[in-house]
Structures are given as C-alpha cells and as structure tokens.
Amino acid sequence: MDYFERVMPVVDKTIAGLAKRKFRDDPIVGKLLSAQTSIISSAYKRHGTIIEAAFVEALRDSNRYEVWGESKFKVSQAAEAVLGNLSDDEYPNASLPYGDAVRTVQIDLITYDHTEKIIGAYEIKRGNGLHDAGKQRSMKRDLQATQILLKSYGETFANKEVATARSHIVFYYGLRSIPKPFSLTGEELDDHFGFPVFGKIERVNEYFKGRLFQILRDLENQQENRRI
C-alpha cells in the first residue's frame, strides 16, 4: 500500500465526521453560513490529526527512520528539578536517566535514525496561530524535560544505540510559539530529516481541502434546491 492510500482513510473519516456534524442556526448569518462556519471551525481543529498522520506515514517510507509515538513519556522528579537551573544553551546537552515519573507528556512522533544513531521527539502543531504566554511556557517546559530524558529513553526503553537526542515542536504553517532552534516549520522538514516529507504532507492537505470544499458546495446546492 503506497503512502497516499495509507493516509487517505484518515482524511475520509474526518470528512465523514464533518459532514454529519449537527449545528445550531445563528440568527445573524442564517442557516447556510451557520453550517459552513461550524464545519470550517471543526475542520481547523481536526486538521492537526491529519498533518500528524501524514507526517508519520511520510517518514515510514524511508528505510533510514524507525517511527513511533509515545503517549506517556515519563518525566522524573530529577528532571523537573533540573529544568529551572538550566539555560536554553545548556539543556540540549543535559541528560538524565529515564524511568521514574511524577508526570507524563504525550509525544506525537519519535524517530530513530539508523544511519546517524539519532533519536528525535516531535510535538506536531498546525502553527497557524500563536499560543498565549502560559501555553508557551508549558510547551517549552515539556520540550526541555523530553530533551534531557530522551537519550536515556532511547537506550534503556527503546533499546537503541543513541549518539544524539533532539526534541522539537513542529509549527507546520510557520507561526512559531517556541523559537529556533527548538522548533521547525513544515518547509524545514525535508532539510531536517534529509528525506522528502513536506511535499507528501501537502498532497494530503490538498486532498483534505478538496473534500472539505465539496461539503461546503453541497450545502450551497442543498439550499438552492430548497428555494426552487
């Protein structure tokens, strides 16, 4: 099964959910615009899941990378204590043992580069709007905690030989709530991985957009038919 065939069901399931969505008419804009606004708003929220699936499947096509997710990455008390004492320049090179947990974080994508022995952790966001200051602090703390535990996680939990660990947040559409070098945009993915990723994700995005616009056109046609 090729790349697009693997990702297409994720888009189709999302579109099916959007098409069945119930909504309340707004008295200001009327039935049609109420429906279209509701569907578009839901599409924004669900699009991140599509980008994530497209991203993961794109890397699966490379023999160089092994990919998986980690829903409960353990953050230890030692890591929490160290975070407040490390500068932005220091924490990428810090490393602590992985295993104990006072909390967990969800990591959307973990990659292991068999060629360079690099383990990477990535949180994937649409990046079409900036997060508030509180959310930025929370994201940065999670990113730092992941970074200082990631090498040990790769060696002890994933049983990999790890030369380098790197953690990033991907703001796909380019609005970075966390600055470089701790973040990536969609257009930077190919260079970062040394493998074509961006074009494949964009192909999926175009398919999603086409299916979404068809729903909106169908709503217009239904309203026109009622007027006849």
Structure keywords:
single chain; 228 residues; alpha/beta; five-stranded mixed sheet
Explained architecture:
The chain folds into two domains: 96 residues, no CATH class; 131 residues, no CATH class. 50% of the residues lie in helices and 18% in strands. Strands 1-2-3-4-5 form a five-stranded mixed β-sheet, sandwiched between helices. The longest helix is centred in the first third of the chain and has 31 residues. It is elongated, with a radius of gyration of 21 Å. It starts with a helix and ends with a helix.
Q: What's a quick, concise take on this entry?
A:
With 228 residues, the chain is α/β, with parallel strands linked by helices. It has helices spanning 3-19, 30-60, 77-83, 133-157, 189-193, 198-227; strands spanning 65-75, 103-113, 118-125, 164-171, 183-184. The chain folds into 2 domains: 1-62 and 195-228, no CATH class; 63-193, no CATH class.
The count of domains is: 2
User: What strand order characterises the main sheet?
Assistant: 1-2-3-4-5
The major sheet is characterized as: 5 strands, mixed
Tell me the strand percentage band: 15-25%
Computed CA radius of gyration, to the nearest angstrom: 21 Å
Structural class: alpha/beta
Q: What is the number of E strands? A: 5
Distance between the amino and carboxyl termini: 45 Å
Low-pLDDT regions: none
Helical coverage, percent range? 40-55%
Mean pLDDT: 92
Which of globular, elongated, flat, extended, rod-shaped describes the shape? elongated
**Helix count from the secondary structure assignment:** 6
What is the string of SSEs from the N terminus onward? HHEHEEHEEHH
